[in-house]
Amino acid sequence: MRFLHTADWHIGKKLHGYDLIPEQEDAYQQIKAIAKREKVDAVVIAGDLYDRALPSEPAVTALTNMLVDLNRKEKFPLLAISGNHDSGVRLGYGQEWFASTDFFLRTRLADALKPVTLQDTQFFLLPYFEPVQARQFFDDESIRTVNQAMERLVAAMQEKFDATKKHVLIAHFFAAGSNHSDSETLVQVGGLNAVPVDMLAPFDYVALGHLHRKEALQNEPTVKYSGSPLKFSTSEAADTKGVWIIDTDQTPVSVTFEPLKPWHDLVVLEDSFTNLMDRDHAYAVTPEDFVAVNLTDTTPITNVMQRLKTRFPRVIELNRVNQLDVTPDELDVKQVQQDPLTLLGDFFEQVTQHPLTEQQQVWARQALQAAEKEADE
Amino acid sequence: MRFLHTADWHIGKKLHGYDLIPEQEDAYQQIKAIAKREKVDAVVIAGDLYDRALPSEPAVTALTNMLVDLNRKEKFPLLAISGNHDSGVRLGYGQEWFASTDFFLRTRLADALKPVTLQDTQFFLLPYFEPVQARQFFDDESIRTVNQAMERLVAAMQEKFDATKKHVLIAHFFAAGSNHSDSETLVQVGGLNAVPVDMLAPFDYVALGHLHRKEALQNEPTVKYSGSPLKFSTSEAADTKGVWIIDTDQTPVSVTFEPLKPWHDLVVLEDSFTNLMDRDHAYAVTPEDFVAVNLTDTTPITNVMQRLKTRFPRVIELNRVNQLDVTPDELDVKQVQQDPLTLLGDFFEQVTQHPLTEQQQVWARQALQAAEKEADE
């Protein structure tokens, strides 16, 4: 059979305050188009369908529409698991009905040992889990890490192997050896909680979610992260996002990459403020692109974020790549003491990328007056 | 056909801090037993399945288990709508799949005009809606009230009537003439937003949710509130909760009431403190029953809540039915000023029904010391 492997949709995620749902809907349309063009027999989504355990109503509506469209309208069988960003309970509501149209959603550890067979392949759907869940499931106090749990789980899965079929694992964890980008939760990454790739050798293919860059596992022909469909952080700016297409009728299975084209890209621009603000200076950026700015200047610039946004409306990050060329003595300390409100406003805007509202200015002024009164007393 | 009408399950509701899920699971088992004993062909749930738009994970698990059990295991067709306490979007996730086993869940106004036909009956499932939604749906700026919206909706439904069938409306609103108890949200109750019962005459039966007492509509043989399966407030203490069984093969349809027996009752006790604390004094109350106390005493009693709980562990309310027989002069004002911590503790416990934790006592002491220091300065 032939299936598509994607993961880490993170529906409802915001990028520095920008709603990504329109971008996510565009990426979904591209994934669907690839599935149709490549005539796949199933679509695999390896966890983190939502960005939060409590997704917003617009996020629920967006994901529901995608699942209804892909499974009920386009008739693709779906194989999906919950990731660490999903609430298994909330995402799993309704799963008993989903199988009526070959939508196999698994959110409980125990379900990992009930493979789904489609054509020539047995799929093992292992949702994200904590070691404590495996400890309870196997009733074995010695299980302390994901690594230890996986040893037991893989052995238990192998007992269910039908020797006449191919075997695919769908899972959501950190596989050892991976290089990780910084847009996924790092808490679980590394050390004892990493699963060594060798342990996954019994499977013909392992469809992973969790890390957002497919480059996280580069040298494993049949253990793959699909990566996220969108760039979620500047460390992914240079990535090519996409999905994998897997053909199981060969041994080893054949795996090809199909790229997604970002509707609005995430771009890092490194230059001086003067160049960046110069409209004659051309950058390969559209007004809707998300821009991270690496400023090369060595002098302080006032209102820098607000001014950059007149040129690049969706600036999401501002970094200084060179140290400021001033000593504390050179800073106008008197000025600093005399105008704390302006300073506060600049600081607030640098941090939040929004100017203070009028109400916030009133509050700030009141707080300052109270503080000054105390200082005078 | 023969169907069961229930509503206002409010899964996840807490009663003065007490988790009701075990009580709700017991009530569900009774409803299921009635459905089986009465051999109904379908079960109608007229809104407010959850207590909150964002139900907790235990609430999602509890309701999911009930729906899976009733529909997938016991094979009862289900007809359900969202109420004002539900998030239509969250509850509705998966609804496209539910119909595969005759679970008809409707959460969008437009779906009210797509009747579900089961045997001899057309069911119109009208979820809770705001006038603005009807205004948009009919593209008619003149629609300002639920009343006006219902006039249009009933007319539109009548156009869909199959004359060879019975016609049942499932809805969640305040029907005019009802007496309401105080455990549902009162915001929408009354005045322009009430639907006159006369307007519902075209239907053979109207299965309503929203008000928690079946007595809210007593004189309408075929327009009924089922009421909630549990008592949610002291105003419902004397009620008999239950469900309706409707037979459509007669005209008018026949309607019979089937009572539910509360696992732990909600009881109002009105007596003096001395009598209430006297263990020789028998009250028809189990230790698990929820007890609202109407104290007849006219003198102040210290630590009253804590002491009552030694006798009735689940006191949920404390009211004084007589005015205190003291004047401000008689109160020991000096004592009040000298021991604010004790006073605070008593007050906190009366309001929250929990004593201050040690940490809270530390915070309170620190705050008091700071306040006293200020007063001294």
UniProtKB/TrEMBL annotation, chains A, B:
Name of the encoding gene: sbcD
PANTHER family to which the protein is assigned, alphabetical: COMPONENT OF ATP-DEPENDENT DSDNA EXONUCLEASE (PTHR30337), NUCLEASE SBCCD SUBUNIT D (PTHR30337:SF0)
Residue span, Calcineurin-like phosphoesterase domain: 1-213
Pfam entry (one): Metallophos
Annotated source species: Levilactobacillus lanxiensis
Nuclease SbcCD subunit D C-terminal domain mapped to chain residues: 263-351
Protein name as annotated: Nuclease SbcCD subunit D
Described function: SbcCD cleaves DNA hairpin structures. These structures can inhibit DNA replication and are intermediates in certain DNA recombination reactions. The complex acts as a 3'->5' double strand exonuclease that can open hairpins. It also has a 5' single-strand endonuclease activity.
InterPro entries the record matches: Calcineurin-like_PHP, DNA_Repair-Maintenance_Comp, Metallo-depent_PP-like, Mre11_N, SbcD, SbcD_C
Gene Ontology MF annotations: exonuclease activity
